[in-house]
Amino acid sequence: MKPSAQPSGDVHQRVQTQFGAAANAYTTSAGHSDPMLLRRVIELAAPAPRDRALDIATGAGHTALALAPHVAEVVAYDITPQMLEETARNAAARGLANVLTRQGAAEKLPFSDSSFDIVTVRQAPHHFADIRAAICEMARVVKPGGRVVIVDSRAPEDPELDRAFNYIEKLRDPSHVRNWRPSEWRVMVREAGLTILAEHLDFYTEKGGPMDFDAWTRRMKTPPAAVEELKGLFRNASPALVEALRIEIDGDRIGFCVPQIAIAATKA
Questions:
Q1: Domain assignment of residue 239, yes or no
Q2: Is 221 contained in some domain?
Q3: Percent of the chain whose pLDDT exceeds 70
Q4: b/e per residue, 240-262, with b = 16+ CB within 10 A?
Q5: 141: domain range?
Q6: Would 185 be classed as within a structural domain?
Q7: Are 226 and 207 in contact (CB under 8 A)?
Q8: Which end of the chain, N or C, is more open, meaning fewer C-beta atoms within 10 Å of its C-beta?
């Protein structure tokens, strides 16, 4: 599927509505705060003490706060004011004075060219109205020789599994735009003028184990009718989808893992 833009205003409004109400839940989210997953970002970013970093769509600030002890300054950037408030509270609670917050959209960054040594984004690009514009903006604001680190859920390469997984995501969260396939990510990153240094395909988990369906839907305040439809989709999933999402059914409990891609790239 060729990357295409949706009306930005509509997408941005849905994101702010969904995540403004869920800001506190993302501070305590087991997966978003997982130290093991955050260490992967730090390893890919390879921070240095004098670096200036930008964390796009920072959410509750987990990635920005993980970077802060390793760099001179981190700008935590998000479109949702409540998320930035959550980030500021979390930074203050940890005594991190080098974390700044700034509001705005990923598709139009209010920063000068080549102004950051590190640019990160984690578990957010599937909400972007114009994914290609967002990646080009990341490439624009990173310094030559700097690093762009992208971590996000990914769609399977199989078209039917791609469709099924994105339908599940959209049903759970109306602000979801699209999970992209690894092959699509590679093309978009290279077209933005970046060189891929490393790529990892793994799974987004919660403390190393399956995600809990109930917590997953509760965090996003998914309506009851959609929750019931989602339960049916998981319980009646095809063998291929069960394998792709590592679905586990144990009585009333549903567990699963979200396929994930991590890319580290640089600008020549």
A1: no
A2: no
A3: 88
A4: ebeebbebeeeeeebbbbbbbbb
A5: 8-155+177-204+258-267
A6: yes
A7: no
A8: C
Q: pLDDT band for position 9 (50/70/90)? A: low
The pLDDT, as a whole number, for residue 20 is 45
> What's the number of domains the chain is made of?
1
CATH number at residue 149: 3.40.50.150
Contacts of 67 (CB under 8 A, 6+ apart): 41, 42, 45, 47, 53, 55, 74, 118, 120
**pLDDT score of 21:** 46
pLDDT in tens, 36-93: 889 999 999 999 999 999 999 999 899 999 999 999 999 999 998 889 999 999 999 9
CA distance 69 to 148: 18
Residue 170 burial by Cβ neighbours in a 10 Å radius (0-12, 13-18, 19+): middle
CA distance 136 to 12: 18
At 232-254, the pLDDT tens digits run 999 999 999 999 999 999 999 99
CB atoms under 10 Å from CB of 98, counted, come to 16
Note whether 100 and 74 are within 8 A (CB): yes
Q: In what order do the strands lie in the sheet with 73-78?
A: 99-103, 73-78, 52-56, 116-122, 142-153, 258-267, 194-204
Quickly count: other Cβ atoms within 10 Å of residue 97's Cβ: 10
* pLDDT for the residue numbered 36: 81
What is the side-by-side order of every strand in the sheet holding 253-256?
A: 211-212, 253-256, 248-250
